[in-house]
Amino acid sequence: MAQEKKQVEQITSMESDFAQWYTDVVKKAELVDYSGVKGCFVLRPYAYALWENIQAVLDKKFKELGHENVYMPVLIPESLLNKEKDHVEGFAPEVAWVTHGGSEPLQERLCVRPTSETLFCDHYAHVVHSWRDLPKLYNQWCSVLRWEKTTRPFLRHREFLWQEGHTIHATPEEAQAETLRMLEVYADLAENYLAMPVIRGRKTDKEKFAGAEATYTIECMMHDRKALQSGTSHYFGDGFARAFEILFTDKDNQLKNPFQTSWGLSTRIIGGIIMTHGDDSGLVLPPRIAPVQIVVIPVAAHKAGVSAAADALLSRLKAAGFRVKSDTSDQSPGWKFAEYEMKGVPLRLEIGPRDLEAGRCMMARRDNGEKISVALDHVETEAARLLEEIHRGLFEKARQNLSQNTFTATTLEEVKAIAEGPGGFIKTMWCGDEACEEKFKEAAGVTSRCMPFQQENLGETCPCCGKPAKHMVVWGVAY
Amino acid sequence: MAQEKKQVEQITSMESDFAQWYTDVVKKAELVDYSGVKGCFVLRPYAYALWENIQAVLDKKFKELGHENVYMPVLIPESLLNKEKDHVEGFAPEVAWVTHGGSEPLQERLCVRPTSETLFCDHYAHVVHSWRDLPKLYNQWCSVLRWEKTTRPFLRHREFLWQEGHTIHATPEEAQAETLRMLEVYADLAENYLAMPVIRGRKTDKEKFAGAEATYTIECMMHDRKALQSGTSHYFGDGFARAFEILFTDKDNQLKNPFQTSWGLSTRIIGGIIMTHGDDSGLVLPPRIAPVQIVVIPVAAHKAGVSAAADALLSRLKAAGFRVKSDTSDQSPGWKFAEYEMKGVPLRLEIGPRDLEAGRCMMARRDNGEKISVALDHVETEAARLLEEIHRGLFEKARQNLSQNTFTATTLEEVKAIAEGPGGFIKTMWCGDEACEEKFKEAAGVTSRCMPFQQENLGETCPCCGKPAKHMVVWGVAY
After folding, report:
1. Residue B102 within any structural domain of the chain
2. Are both A75 and A204 inside the same structural domain?
3. pLDDT tens for residues B194-232?
4. Longest Cα pair distance anywhere in chain B, in angstroms?
């Protein structure tokens, strides 16, 4: 029988070429495949399982907060997309158009949804009539299409999977509260499940969503000190409701326009997980969403009792609720170690004849390489303890990366020096003028990531124009 | 305060106009909304929750059987769709074409996937190289688009949600076994969760999937005695693998083409649930997939203790694992009764002052209207028992409809008389010739639903041509 062992090949190191390292990891960890359409990627089982775990966390939380899932059509008539002026300006340049159905040209072009505000509004106009019909707290899981020029796995797809929440309320206060509440759901996912510390804040008008009155964001810092916008939440006021003529009879018998929000988080976050935690051996996955939390590897499996002991451990760990698999293939232990390191499995459990004799096994942490000898009687409690430690360790390491690479500047020259030197996030004051925001970009190549909720007073004036400062902004180079 | 009470309006009766009854139920039970694109329907929360419950049953089963979820792109280049001759002939006439991305025309047209065989094949060609890479047992949850001329909610959408399983194997035997195994998963879903008895069988060549060697089906009979094809499973042999040049090195070191299957079940099944179990008061949902299994309705809720008792029952039933809600709105009990009847909630639990005094409550079955007085101490066990009885009752009623409306014929005249008379399924022998199959359609308006796995010998000759019979076929008028 031919021994065609799959080689675990070397990947580019992070320090030598971070972009190539990323591409290597995405491929070697079997996350995506390229399809025949640029920017449309195949999500392979391991990536999809990761997404399913993220979905499960969010979907549960959405439902606990009273949201219901729905499904809107994938196609939007051009006339519907055109109804809200700012929205169509933002999205029309990057949509894909369906012009033929079967062999016949369509009377009106249909775009493949880039986002579904217009569809939700059309539906609300049909079903919202009275204050009794409000609020509607909806969410949908789907794919959207945006005709991007430059594409990269997870970070910039033409087609990507996401959830888009859409809610409609009787009062602006209720809608605003919803916008912030859902941003906090994203922050909780990022910090407590993905071990990614976030900066919560509001986008400047220049960076906000097309059609929104306000956009809120969670921003994360990647290993290379660039920013990833990881989830956004939008307050629309009654702009869409007016454009789509959504009206309800309020308790006071007056006809009014309701107030709306939307909020979305996409598979982009998987790119964030890779670039926050990964290392030169591949992926490092946060335990709470890892598709496999523990891999059991028998060593010298042909020796008496080893296979049976590995099977028993697998069963015990499964029964205890861990996501666990064992690899009993005829590949060498060395090959297996490298394979599951590449895939970022948080814990590896090795068991061989000598371990067995001692009534112990070995647990190896993916995050720091530490090996711990564990009594067989205690595998469940030790696995639980170590997975928790790994989560905390990953979060702490990412938090340090964020805090050590966040700088303060009071002049444009300082901003430029930091951007060109160490890189990272740069906090400055800002006058609120878009012209100054443009100058940061021109002078230092940075864009405003957000105006953090936690404002600090770093001075009285804008580093650009010298006028009175209104906000503290975090700047950075973004994915 | 204005009392704008939503009216539960009358719906058309099933006997007077079954098609209109169906349309009324779909609307009044708040299952779908119409969008701006013909045949693309909004799935409202109640319909989507039903779909989620169906998904949960199937997804768990798929995973237990070793399948992994993936996600393939929504767009297929025309050249890729064209690779397998029979497949493209079947699907090209009904696909929607994307011709522009942003403001630019595309170099090659892209179709919105009508099904994803071609995408899976393209991916397999990238990742299947050795016998070690086989089998791949994949599934995806997504929407597909088929440019149908006539559309109806659930039964015929242009865009519909489904799952499509795609597997690839080293041997034809393994692939054939998978095809039948997955048909049985669908039959189990239909019978044991949806209370829909099925006929399992094989499609004739005329009715099989474009590109398949064999298509298997589960066929259900609706209340109006028409057939609904409710799930199909296809064996492809190595036809796709040859067309897409998928090759693997087998254990004997020879390069070979692998063997494939696909199988799908869609939101169409929701139309089947409606038309199998519904009645003149609206939906009747099978308890195992009903979004709400029990609705708790306090009667005279302002009387002392009633609200508190209703709340306590709600909590107890939730804790016991039932899907339960209560309606404490200011609508009248009569309005509420009609509303949850329309929505097909299997059990209604009423509690009022007199019940409370007696330490009892009333449970009303949606399926047969029976009312049962239940001691408060026993609500959980009684609810469980009644929900099981409702499931069995619904299945038995549907089974009787199927058996009482399945007829045997030995001449084309008899087939015609049955089709024009009572309607229903008609069993006959058949020579296997497509010309005769066509004659059944011309003479009696029926199509072959399947050649059931449980064959019976009804005679020696084909009712059409008199030649020796090869198969027993079930004929019917299909949705």
Report:
1. yes
2. yes
3. 999 999 999 999 999 999 999 999 999 999 999 999 999
4. 82
User: Cβ of B35 and A4 within 8 Å?
Assistant: no
Containing structural domain, residue A223:
18-277
Q: Please tell me which residue of chain A has the smallest CA distance to B43.
A: A71
Q: Does B40 touch chain A (CB under 8 A)?
A: yes
A114 burial type by CB count under 10 A (0-12 exposed, 13-18 middle, 19+ buried): buried
Q: Is residue B454 part of a domain?
A: yes
**Closest-CA residue of chain B to A92:** B102
List the CATH number of the domain containing B445.
3.30.110.30
* Nearby residues of B167 by Cβ (< 8 Å), 6 or more positions away: B67, B135, B136, B137, B138, B175, B178, B260, B261, B262
A49 and B43 within 8 Å at the Cβ level: the answer is: no
CATH of the domain at A209: 3.30.930.10
Q: Does a structural domain hold residue A284?
A: no
Q: Are residues A233 and A371 in the same domain?
A: no
Give chain B's end-to-end CA distance (angstroms, integer).
48
Domain boundary among A217, A252, A277: A277
Give the end of a domain, one of A277, A304, A335.
A277
Cα–Cα distance measured from residue A401 to residue A198, given in angstroms and rounded to the nearest whole number: 12
First to last CA, chain A: 47
Q: How far is Cα B426 from Cα B460, in angstroms, rounded to an integer?
A: 17
- The per-residue pLDDT for range B9-47, each reduced to its tens digit, is 689 999 999 999 999 999 999 999 999 999 999 999 999
**ipTM value for the complex:** 0.95
Structure confidence at residue A3 (pLDDT): 38
Please give the interface size between A and B, counted as residue pairs whose CB atoms are below 8 Å apart.
168
Which residue type does A128 have?
V
Are B441 and B348 in a shared domain?
Answer: no
Of A1, A43, A69, the CB nearest to B251: A1
Tally of structural domains, chain A: 3
Taking 70 as the pLDDT cut, the residues of chain B under it are 1-9
Least CB–CB distance from B35: residue in A6, A33, A73 = A73
- Judge contact between A43 and A267, C-beta under 8 A: yes
Residue B71 has its nearest CB partner, among A37, A43, A75, at A43
